[in-house]
Design brief:
The complex is a heterodimer of chains A (232) and B (110). Chain A is α/β, with parallel strands linked by helices. The radius of gyration of chain A is 21 Å and the shape is elongated. Chain A has nine helices and nine strands. Chain A has two domains: 3-72, no CATH class; 76-231, 3-Layer(aba) Sandwich (Rossmann fold), CATH 3.40.50. Helix content of chain A is 42%, strand content 18%. Chain B has one domain (9-107). Chain B has two helices and five strands. A five-stranded antiparallel β-sheet of chain B has the order 3-2-1-5-4, sandwiched between helices. In chain B, strand 2 and strand 3 form a beta hairpin. Chain B starts with 8 loop residues before the first helix and ends with a strand. The chains are: A alpha/beta (232), B alpha+beta (110).
Chain lengths: 232, 110
């Protein structure tokens, strides 16, 4: 493989694009595939199968050929509202998984570079931030402040924009009140039920790192379900 | 404070190449039965035998590195390797899990 190709893959990965690397195993030629891109003679005649594998995010040697396809998938973008202690553990746990993290908090003393040295942070109200951020079903939201004036606008935005995962920290009692407020704002029972609250799978732990682990586990579980469904 | 970005396997390969090391990329292209690393897993190896990433749970890495170093000595630019479980050398290069994997190794060149 040419260094040029390696650099192109690194660049595309860091700008979070969906693409695939094709390799002809008989002559060693490699090429980048994206929907709509013209392919060279090495790969053009297999275009239909390549497209099929790429839409299913399936890696492998394409049946009946000597073409290997390796897909690079856009990571899920997780927005964490609340630069609290649990958010610090979340950043640690997400580090080796295919997620991009943004932490949002209007409270300046929480959201500092010292507390979050290796992650994108935004010091503003969720309402303001979501006016500028482009979001869709590739996003996940985790709210951690359990303060309605910070969490609620984020939850409403996530419901309206069909985030694939929405989780809200807070006790059952806090969550019941939260659901009531959302109902009063016009959200349907079904929409409200799609929020994971209280957040996380039941691991039985109460400490910060354990709660963070239960949240990350739930998000990974949901993202894998998403991938499995797309393969059906 | 400067934000650090996690170094990936491919970035490690590029950095080695740019500091004048010879570099090989190894990728899992096919698996049968149980295998610890899914298709698409990769590992980068340099001419000093240093490596980053993985292509199995530690079962065949040593052998893959050896093959990479061999490839650097000849004119071919790529090679396919196949590993199966075997009673004779299951503790050396075989896959104790009973799986089979095919690995594609290739030189990075300018």
């Amino acid at each position: 493989m040419k260094l040029e190709m390696l650099n192109e893959i690194i660049q595309k990965k860091s700008s979070s694009q969906n693409f695939a690397l094709l390799t002809n195993l008989t002559n060693g030629n490699s090429e980048i595939f994206e929907f709509g891109k013209l392919l060279s003679n090495d790969f053009e005649s297999y275009k239909k199968q390549i497209e099929n594998y790429h839409s299913l995010k399936k890696n492998g040697v394409i049946d009946g050929t000597q073409i290997f396809i390796q897909n690079f998938t856009k990571p899920i973008e997780v927005i964490i509202v609340g630069a609290v202690h649990i958010a610090q553990y979340l950043v640690d746990l997400f580090k080796n998984l295919n997620f991009v993290i943004t932490i949002v908090d209007p409270r300046k003393f929480f959201i500092t570079d010292e507390r979050f040295p290796n992650v994108k942070i935004i010091n503003d109200w969720p309402e303001e931030i979501f006016k500028k951020l482009e979001t869709d079903s590739n996003n996940a939201l985790i709210t951690l402040t359990h303060d309605p004036k910070i969490d609620d606008p984020a939850l409403k935005h996530a419901l309206k924009n069909k985030f694939f995962y929405i989780g809200a920290l807070g006790s059952k009692k806090t969550h019941t009140k939260r659901c009531q407020r959302l109902k009063e704002s016009g959200f349907t029972e079904e929409e409200i039920a799609s929020i994971h609250g209280p957040i996380g799978i039941k691991l039985g732990g109460k400490s910060g790192p354990e709660i963070a682990l239960s949240i990350v586990s739930q998000l990974v579980l949901e993202s894998n379900k998403l991938l499995l469904n797309s393969k059906k | 404070m400067e934000k650090q970005i996690k170094r990936t396997i491919l970035e490690q390969g590029r950095d080695w190449f740019e500091s004048d090391r010879k570099v090989i990329l190894a990728r899992v292209i096919q698996t049968w039965g149980s295998s610890p690393c899914p298709v698409g897993s990769n590992m980068i190896v340099n001419d000093k035998g240093e490596f980053f990433g993985s292509v199995s749970g530690g079962c065949v890495e040593a052998n893959v590195i050896e093959e990479c170093l061999d490839l650097l000595k000849n004119n071919n630019s790529f090679k396919q390797l196949e590993f199966k479980v075997s009673d004779d050398n299951a503790w050396n290069v075989g896959l104790a899990c009973g799986g089979e994997i095919k690995i594609y190794i290739e030189k990075i060149n300018s």
